Amino acid sequence: MPVEDLNHVNINAPQPLLDRLRDFYVDIIGLREGPRPPVPIPGYWLYAGDKPVVHLMDAAAMPGHHPQPGARGHLDHIAFSCTDVAGMETRLLAAGVPFRRNDIREFGIVQLVVTDPAGLDVELNISD
Length: 128
Prior knowledge:
It contains two helices and eight strands.
């Protein structure tokens, strides 16, 4: 059975940071908060279309789990496919979110790279 797709990314953080992450991924990146199963750990599921692609969970409510702030091991970034380069740049500028732009002509894409409130880089790949 081959892998067909990435299902989701899970981020564990303390509740105040979790709320900032939710706001960042909804207000800045453009995901939407949606339904999640009745699990006993507080958190949020954030959707791209009909797919819950980012799961946020309260680290304090996870028994035996003690994430280290800013420690991401070998994980470098997560990436989303997006549309509307100008609209996304306008959104980032209006929100005061610093970003780096990479024009990759060979693949016909523009990458806008931002950093979320937990320190994880987020790459927005936009076909030009």
